[in-house]
Amino acid sequence: MSATAAAREALHAVDDPEYPGLSIVDLGLVEEVSERDGEIVVGLIPTFSGCPALHMIANDVVEALQTRPEILRCRVEWLPAPVWSTDRLSELGRQRLARDYTVVLRRKDGTLRCPVCGSDAVHDQSMAGPTRCRSIAWCDSCRNPVEVMR
Ligand SMILES: [Zn+2]
Asked: What's the whole-number average pLDDT of the chain?
């Protein structure tokens, strides 16, 4: 296996620290994997600039890649573009967020659907969520709090 293929495989095992069980690949953070002068460079896109998890993610990526014998040296580059959006989430990523974390994505028209009961009666409660990446909404139908990924 080539070093870049080994790196791509290893990245699938790197979970986002805020969402254990959900890989950074499914979250759409991985933009490119390249080899430059024998070094593997992983280009990542931050979900939201300033998220405190970024440093942890970079460390986890380097640790995961170092376990592969094909990879001698590696590093992470945070790319300024393209900008992360919820469109980058894989189908599996969306399903896991809704099922395991009751996290929903805002639709293009700005509305929300409850990941617990499927109702559209979800309204924003506060703009201050647990992190700057997320806000809290409330489902009027099943009375569950819902996290909204921005
Ligand atoms: Zn609901």
From this structure: 89
On whether residue 12 sits in a domain, the answer given is yes
Same-domain pairing of 64 and 127? no
Task: Say which amino acid occupies 41.
Answer: V
Residue 109 banded pLDDT, cuts 50, 70, 90: confident
pLDDT, tens only, 72-107: 999 999 998 998 888 899 999 998 988 888 888 888
**Selection from 53, 60, 84 nearest residue 74 by Cα:** 60
Domain total in the chain: 2
Q: How far is the CA of 101 from the centre of ligand 1 (A)?
A: 13
Ligand 1 centroid–CA 130 distance in Å is 20
In terms of domains, do 70 and 16 share one? yes
DSSP for 77-110, written as a single string: EE-S-SPP-GGGS-HHHHHHHHHHH-EEE--TTS
* pLDDT over threshold 80, residue 61: yes
Distance (Å) from CA 29 to ligand 1 centroid: 29
Give residues whose Cβ lies within 5 Å of ion ligand 1.
114, 116-117, 119, 139, 141-142
Which domain, by its residues, includes 142? 102-149
